[in-house]
Specification:
By secondary structure, the protein is α+β, with helices and mostly antiparallel strands. It is built from 6 helices and 5 strands.
Length: about 230
C-alpha cells in the first residue's frame, strides 16, 4: 500500500507512518485505540510509561483468554511494552513533522491505526509438514492542531485626561430643576391640624331638646297645683 489508508487535509494536519513493523498488529491496534482522540502530550506520557512496563494497556477486542488487571478496575489488559515503544516512535515523528511545518506545538491524535502488512510463510526444518507465518504490520498516526479558545473582547477604558463632561452637565440640569420647583407642593403635602375643642352639632341639639322637655313638665305640674323642685 502506498501512502495512507485514509484521506485528510495534509496542509492542516501532521502525519507519520511506519511500514514493515516486526510486532503483533493486535497489540499495536489496541495501543493505538487508547491514544485515539487524546491530546498528544497526554498520549506521549502514556506511551512512555507503557513502554517501560509501569502501567497495563486495556484490551477491548483481542482479549480472549486474557487475564484481568487490578490497575484497570478488573478489566482485561496486558503489558505490550514493545508495541507501545513503536507507537511512541511514530507519534514523536508526527509531532516533529507538525512543528517543522509551523502548525503549532499542541496537537490532538485524530487518527491512530495499526493493520497487518505482509505475511511470509516459514517451513519447518528436516522435511516436516508444519508451516508457520511471519507477519509484519504498519502503523500510521495523523495529528490535528489544537484549536485555541476565542479571546473575549476587552472593554475600552475611558481616557484619564478627559473628564466625563456629559454626566457632569446632566447632574447640573437635574439640580437646577429640583431647586426651581414651587413651594406650593410642599404646603399641599403638609397635614392640616384641627382644634381639639370642637363641639359637634348633634350634641347641642340633644341639650336643647332635654331643656325644652323639662320646662314642659314643670308647666304641667304647676297647673295642677303641685310644687316641684327643679334641679339646675
Amino acid at each position: 500500500m502506498r501512502g495512507y489508508s485514509l484521506d485528510f487535509e495534509r496542509e492542516k494536519c501532521a502525519a507519520a507512518r511506519l511500514e514493515g513493523v516486526d510486532a503483533s498488529y493486535k497489540d499495536l491496534s489496541e495501543v493505538c485505540g487508547r491514544i485515539r482522540r487524546k491530546g498528544a502530550s497526554w498520549a506521549r506520557s502514556f506511551l512512555e510509561r507503557a513502554a517501560e512496563g509501569e502501567i497495563p494497556v486495556l484490551y477491548k477486542r483481542h482479549n480472549k483468554k486474557l487475564g484481568h488487571r487490578r490497575e484497570l478496575g478488573g478489566r482485561k489488559g496486558r503489558y505490550p511494552w514493545k508495541a507501545a515503544a513503536i507507537v511512541l516512535k511514530v507519534l514523536d515523528s508526527a509531532i516533529a513533522n507538525g512543528v517543522s511545518r509551523g502548525l503549532g506545538e499542541e496537537y490532538v491524535v485524530s487518527v491512530a491505526t495499526a493493520n497487518k502488512k505482509l505475511t511470509y510463510p516459514r517451513m519447518a526444518p528436516k522435511g516436516r509438514q508444519a508451516r508457520s507465518y511471519y507477519e509484519l504490520a504498519r502503523v500510521e498516526i495523523v495529528l490535528k492542531p489544537k484549536e485555541e479558545a476565542p479571546k473575549k473582547a476587552e472593554a475600552k477604558k475611558p481616557e484619564a485626561g478627559k473628564p466625563e463632561e456629559k454626566k457632569h452637565e446632566a447632574k447640573q440640569k437635574s439640580a437646577e430643576v429640583t431647586a426651581g420647583e414651587p413651594a406650593k407642593k410642599e404646603e399641599a403635602k403638609a397635614p392640616t391640624h384641627q382644634p381639639t375643642t370642637h363641639v359637634h352639632k348633634h350634641e347641642e341639639e340633644k341639650e336643647a331638646a332635654s331643656a325644652h322637655a323639662h320646662h314642659e313638665r314643670y308647666a304641667f305640674e304647676h297647673a295642677k297645683g303641685k310644687k316641684t323642685v327643679v334641679k339646675g
